[in-house]
Amino acid sequence: MSKTCVSISDLTECCLKILHSAGVPEQDADLLTDTLLDAEICGIESHGLIRLPAYIRRIRQGLISPVPEITVSERDCALSIDGGDGLGQVVAHRAMQECVAGAKKHGACFAAVRNSNHFGAASYFSRMAAREGCIGFACTAAGPAMAPFGGMEPLLGTDPFAVSFPVRGHVPFTLDIAVSAVAKGKIRIFEREGKCLPRGWALNKYGNDTTDPAAAISGSLLPMAGHKGYGIAMVIEAFCCLLSGARLSCESEGMFDSHGKAGTGHFFGAFDIAHFTDPEQFERRGGEWFEKIKNSKTRSGVKQILIPGELEESRRNGGPDSLLLSEATYSKILDLNKDGQ
Questions:
Q1: For the chain, what is the HEC assignment?
Q2: pLDDT per position as a tens digit, 253-310
Q3: Strand 202-203 with 220-221, pairing
Q4: Quick one: average pLDDT of 52-72?
Q5: Could you tell me which of 39, 60, 42, 49 has the C-alpha nearest to residue 11?
Q6: Which is nearest to 145 in space by CA: 189, 82, 202?
Q7: How far is CA 240 from the centre of its chain?
Q8: Is it the case that residue 334 has pLDDT exceeding 80?
Q9: The pLDDT of residue 180 is above 80
């Protein structure tokens, strides 16, 4: 699949125009644009601009509210949040802000969210907490895509989660993973680029291993690490769906082919380090720990050991002024821009 080089400033301007024309307020449009471009810069194409056309389509269909009424019910350090069918990034940003504020007061704070939508990369929100001296946790239920261990029906989501925390002398630790063998968005990218999947990623609708992306999309993804990924998916859906009252993955639809409101559930947590220990000691010990790991012996052919989140942060700090964007995605963005003018 051919790609084209586009300046980030041009993409930013284009995205903002599209979102404004769809009725998204300026502050929320800025946030959504930042999350999408951050994913692209970090190489997470599956959570980048490829998602914007689906968001706009769902706004136009009345399935996403561009100006949601977000309500927060607070009981000490436990928050229940109704996202009002808003853009997932807008709802998630508000939820993590509330969690950080609650953690500064109580030491820890958690939010169970319902009536939201796809929120992009989970680490965008866990890093919010790390910047405020907290350990941040973010996770979300997703559309039905993954089979339970030993099964063949897509009853669970890819259900990603992220954890971030600050250390001295290093970028924040950030782990952001789906509990499936691969994110479903990456399957769609393989399909678009005409590539075969590695074995062990997915099943076709007959329950057989497949390397065909189209067959995988109509079939099921496999959990990472077998029963371990399967079990973690159920834990995440308990947090995101059972606690909040949101739809379980098996009760929902995929974002790209849904015809109703998503009713997506998320779960967020923030732990204020200062409530547990001296923050300077935490960050110093964390930095020393990271150095020990990075300076340990590497296997043959491995140049360096990276801390989770380090690669993505290096791409952010590289200061790129342009992106290599797939021509198909860029064409859709340009079409949306024309429609909004």
A1: CCEEEEEHHHHHHHHHHHHHHCCCCHHHHHHHHHHHHHHHHCCCHHHCHHHHHHHHHHHHCCCCECCCCCEEEEECCEEEEECCCECHHHHHHHHHHHHHHHHHHHCEEEEEEEEECCCCCCHHHHHHHHCCCEEEEEEECCCCCECCCCCCCCCECCCCEEEEECCCCCCCEEEEECCECCCHHHHHHHHHHCCCCCCCCEECCCCCEECCHHHHHHCEECECCCHHHHHHHHHHHHHHHHCCCCCCHHHCCCHHHCCCCCCEEEEEEEEEHHHCCCHHHHHHHHHHHHHHHHCCCCCCCCCCCCCCCHHHHHHHHCCCCEEEEEHHHHHHHHHHHHHHC
A2: 877 777 799 999 999 999 999 999 999 999 999 999 999 999 999 999 999 999 999 9
A3: antiparallel
A4: 97
A5: 49
A6: 202
A7: 14
A8: yes
A9: yes
pTM beyond 0.90, yes or no = yes
Rounded distance, CA 24 to CA 4, Å?
28
Asked if 158 and 151 count as a contact pair (C-beta separation under 8 A), the reply is no
Could you tell me whether strands 264-272 and 78-82 are parallel, antiparallel, or unpaired per DSSP bridges?
Answer: unpaired
Are 136 and 129 within 8 A, CB to CB? yes
What's residue 189's pLDDT? 86
Q: Kindly report, residue by residue over 6-50, the tens digit of the pLDDT.
A: 999 999 999 999 999 999 999 999 999 999 999 999 999 889 999
Task: Output b/e per residue, 185-222; b: 16+ Cβ within 10 A.
Answer: bbbbbbbeeeeebeeebbbbeeeeebbebebbbebbbb
- CA-nearest of 236, 232, 298, 288 to 267 is 236
Residues 197 and 212 sit within 8 Å (Cβ to Cβ): yes
Alpha carbons 6 and 323: distance in angstroms, whole number: 5
Residue type, 183: A
Structure tokens at 338: 């024309």
- Nearest CA to 237 out of 172, 296, 162, 161 is that of 161
Residues facing residue 203 across a β-bridge: 209, 220
The two three-digit tokens of residue 102, written as one number? 């609650």
CB burial of residue 279 (10 Å; 0-12, 13-18, 19+)? middle
208 within 8 A of 218, measured Cβ to Cβ: no
